């Protein structure tokens, strides 16, 4: 009763599979973006571990700890996700400015 009516047409295993597929597609898109053929692109590949960890951490929180209500609240409350984001930003900035 506290969800949208259309969600009743989808099973939980389907939604979980769609979540995992979408996460994989997002990571693949970031990998392609970070390795774009330019000299900076090959160095930007060094940032790949941070999104990989962040996406896997998010999937673990949602699928195993059932904390998938609000992605924003999840990022604000999970210190490991925050560290991954900060490390990604710091590494990206260092690569771009150097």
Write the layout of secondary structure elements.
Layout: H1 12-34, H2 39-44, H3 49-64, H4 71-77, H5 79-97
Helix pairs in contact: 1-3, 3-5
Characterization of the model:
The chain has 98 residues and is mostly helical. 72% of the residues lie in helices and 0% in strands. The chain is built from five helices and no strands. The chain has helices at 12-34, 39-44, 49-64, 71-77, 79-97. α1 (12-34) runs antiparallel to α3 (49-64) and α3 (49-64) packs antiparallel against α5 (79-97). The longest helix is centred in the first third of the chain and has 23 residues, at 12-34. The radius of gyration is 16 Å and the shape is elongated. The termini are far apart. The model has no long low-confidence stretch (mean pLDDT 89).
Q: How would you describe this structure in keywords?
A:
98 residues; mainly alpha; single chain
Uncertain spans: none
SSE string: HHHHH
Please state the structural category: mainly alpha
How would a crystallographer describe the biggest sheet? none
Distinct helical segment count: 5
Global Rg: 16 Å
Q: What is the average per-residue confidence, as pLDDT, rounded to a whole number?
A: 89
Proportion of strand residues: under 5%
Based on Cα principal axes, name the global outline. elongated
The count of DSSP E runs of length 2 or more, i.e. the number of strands, is 0
Give the N-to-C terminal Cα separation: 53 Å
């Amino acid at each position: 009763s506290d969800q949208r009516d259309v969600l009743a047409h989808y099973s939980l295993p389907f939604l979980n599979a769609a979540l995992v597929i979408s996460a994989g597609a997002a990571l693949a898109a970031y990998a392609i973006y970070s390795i774009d053929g330019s000299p900076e692109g090959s160095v930007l590949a060094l940032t790949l571990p941070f999104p990989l960890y962040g996406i896997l951490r998010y999937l673990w929180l949602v699928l195993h700890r059932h904390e998938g209500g609000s992605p924003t609240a999840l990022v604000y409350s999970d210190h490991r996700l925050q560290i991954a984001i900060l490390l990604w930003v710091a590494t990206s900035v260092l690569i771009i400015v150097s």
